[in-house]
Amino acid sequence: MRIAILAMPGVQMLDVAGPMDVFSEANKLINGRSGYELSVVGRDREPVVASNGGRLLPDRTIGEPLDGFDTLVIAGSPSVQDFEADLALIEWVRSESAHVRRLASICTGAFLLGSAGLLNGRRATTHWNSTTRLRKMFPTIDVQPNTIFIKDGSVYTSAGVTASMDLALALVEEDFGRGVALRVAKELILFLQRPGGQSQFSVHLEAQVSELGPIRDVIQWIAENIADDLTVATLASRLGMSARNFARTFKRETGMTPGDYVDAVRVDTARRMLEEGDVPLKRVAALCGFNDQSAFRRAFIRRINVTPVEYRSRFRRGANHAPKEIAAALGV
């Protein structure tokens, strides 16, 4: 299967190198079966300078059709906005999407798929810090901000940077089965499937992009007073607004209800505490504003899809715990 990865100038290097390592490792494990043939596509033949200063030498250019290719992957870039109106590039993406079996974007590569009209009416995701802009630019896309990757038909989109490897593992599993994908994950020290969504790996939350002074100020106040009473009525009174008007304004500016945002901040604060120390769970719950451990556990499972105990065992700094799937494969 021939896979083309489009790399723009300023590309995030790991958006290219991560999937290539996953596919390359799979090639070693499939025992003579036809594997992956990987090609980097550039805008021209000049070396592509990545955002970290590294250089990639393209195998092909956007002047060449992808005849015989199975999958097209659009890598992300911190400077993706420079290419969203590049008509030649967008037309190439649109045209070549019709010639491949699968289409995928990594991180902000979703903006190029969106500009080409290839995500209209689909569920999609991107880097957590860009989901609001993706939603505003392309209102017909059903943006899912708290997802590692999404498959909608034959189109895949993923969250940022290291999520490129999660997506690549999913493609390997689709092509060669769970056994091969698990062995690749084991060799590269990866999760076969991460627990929860990408919000657990981000320090900031989507709603923090609000540019309006009052809403930005109340967001800051929430972060600094996480254990306090943070009901809609309380937050609204700080701004001298009615609860209804405050809730409407907050949702319009952040894409989240006040209740969802407070819940997300509390869980995000709790997961960082679980990563960084051994504070008892009851104390973590209290410090993060949960009424009791049961409410804490329910909120954590709802947003992270694992219990606080399971999360701490996997992500606490200095811990040496393997995910269940890998642990089983290792016989531990």
UniProtKB/TrEMBL annotation:
Domain of life: Bacteria
Entries under CDD domains matching the protein: GATase1_AraC_1 (cd03137)
Gene3D superfamilies recorded: 3.40.50.880, Homeodomain-like (1.10.10.60)
HTH araC/xylS-type domain residues: 216-314
Keywords: DNA-binding, Transcription, Transcription regulation
A GO term for molecular function: DNA-binding transcription factor activity
InterPro entries: Class_I_gatase-like, DJ-1/PfpI, Homeodomain-like_sf, HTH_AraC, HTH_AraC-typ_CS, INH-QAR
Protein name according to UniProt: HTH-typetranscriptional regulator GlxA
